[in-house]
Amino acid sequence: MSIVQIELTDAEREALETLAREKGKSAQDILKEALGEVLHDASSFDWKGAIARGEGLWAHRDDLPDFDELRRESDRDLWGRD
What angle do CA 66, 69, 74 make, to 5 degrees? Predict the structure, then answer.
């Protein structure tokens, strides 16, 4: 097991201590539980599904630049080897 030091603002520390008292737990236990939830959520996040759900999001926008032209501009030879 490792020990990790974090910095909290006074308001964060007070809120943590209040929550710990209300839950009848230590501040350390509250932080461990919160971190466990964040790490679990991050590891189970369906990023492929999120990308798929965003498909066509900008399809009907007419205020966007020409992305093909932007790509062509970025493909130019920056080192002058053409």
Answer: 125
Q: Is residue 3 part of a domain?
A: no
12-21's contacts with Cβ under 8 Å and 24+ in sequence apart are none
pLDDT digits (tens, 9 = 90+) for 8-45: 999 999 999 999 999 999 999 999 999 998 888 778 88
| Parent domain of 66 | 10-74
In a domain, 24, yes or no: yes
> Residue 60 gets which letter from DSSP?
T
Which pLDDT does position 82 carry in this prediction?
57
43 within a domain of the structure (yes/no): yes
